[in-house]
Each structure stands twice: as C-alpha cells, then as structure tokens.
Amino acid sequence: MKMSFMFAMIRIVLGSGGVLLLALVGKAESKTVPAAQQQSSFFCDRLAISAEHRKRHEELSRTLALAKLGVREMAEGFEFEFPNDPATYRDIMEWIPDERACCPFFDITVHLEREQGKIWLGFSGAQGIKTFIKAEFAPWFRP
Description:
Blueprint lengths: L1 H15 L2 H14 L18 H17 L2 E5 L2 E6 L3 H17 L4 E6 L6 E6 L4 H8 L1 H4 L2
Antiparallel strand pairs: 1-2, 2-4, 3-4
Helix pairs in contact: 1-2, 3-4
C-alpha cells in the first residue's frame, strides 16, 4: 500500500512541480516514523511562531546574551551560565517554548545549581549541532 501511495504521489507531482512532493512525502514520513527517531534539519523555522512572539523572542535573546556569565563546551553541545535571579529565570522560561518550536532539533536543558547557585541553559543534539549552535548563538559566545 505504501508503494502505491508513493507512486500516486509521484504521478501528481510530475504534473504540478516538485515542491508538492517534498511537502507530501514529509507528512507521510512523520506519520510512520516515531517522534524519538525523527531528525530535523539544522535550520530555524521562523514561521513556527507568530510575528508577535518572534519579536519578543528576539528581545529575550538579546537580554539573555547580555545576562550570560559564561559558556562551557560539553561533549554534544554547549551550556550557558546565567545568574540566579528571578528575572533571568523568568526570561529563560519564557524564551524556551518559542526556541523549541522554531528549532525542534535541539535537546534543551535547564540546570539550577543547589544553594542558589547559577542557572545553566544547555543545547545539544545530533552530530554537527555544535557548529550550528556557534553560528545561531554567536552573540552568546562573546565575552
């Protein structure tokens, strides 16, 4: 049945252009591959969040870049160090859902050190993610 579905898709696409094939094949694959096994490409989906949220997300990104105390490299990504204060914590927790929506390929962690220690925001993922993180979060790597 899957082959006939794919054949029908190819016949439709040949008559109307290649873009339709990519959209339909992607939807078919997402229904057959468990979420834990899906691998998104390393690109941000700017349409995953509304223009209003995008503006706020960019504002929070700038705020977090300025608040960042340090960065440490991990085996599969990076962790950014932030001060332990209520405003920074709120900013991080507001920022994460939109970042996760536009960049579903990240594993995102928040680590709160005991005894009112620092906040660590981590990003990791599939092979090659470090290069993407360095490019996408360039301002966060500045001293």
